[in-house]
Write a structure and sequence with these properties.
single chain, about 130 residues, Hypothetical Protein Mth938, Chain: A, six-stranded mixed beta sheet, about 20% helix, about 30% strand
Length: about 130
């Protein structure tokens, strides 16, 4: 009998506002998560983009898979505002997503407001220290 630790993919199966962010993670639904997250119709998922400063289509594959249930995608790019790469913006547009990049703090605040309004919002949030 093995007593090894089992590590599962981080996933909260519901929609919840983000209560706090910083120190490399997020708090929501009475829990905390260290690292970046995706807030999607299917729930809140742990997320590890390959390069948070240069997002690619592969980084947002889970978002694209759920694009039908999303009107607005907020992308929290970390502490500072950075534009999404043009090819990625086009891929998201082709999937019918309106994507807005901003600092993670701005994205968290906007996500919470749109979620409270019961809008079809999703967020890709890069953790900040």
């Amino acid at each position: 009998m093995s007593s090894g630790m089992i590590i599962r993919e981080a996933h909260f199966p519901g929609r919840a506002p983000i209560d706090a962010y910083g120190n490399g993670g997020f708090r929501f639904a009475g829990m905390s998560h260290r690292g970046s997250i995706l807030c999607l119709p299917s729930g809140i998922h742990g997320w590890q983009p390959s390069d948070p400063e240069d997002l690619r289509e592969e980084d947002l594959a889970k978002v694209l898979a759920e694009a039908v249930g999303i009107e607005v995608l907020l992308v929290g790019m970390g502490r500072d505002l950075r534009r999404l790469p043009t090819p990625l913006r086009q891929t998201l547009r082709d999937a019918g997503l309106s994507a807005d990049s901003m600092s993670t703090g701005s994205a968290v605040r906007t996500y919470n407001v749109l979620l409270a309004e019961e809008r079809a919002v999703a967020a890709a949030l890069v953790a900040v220290e």
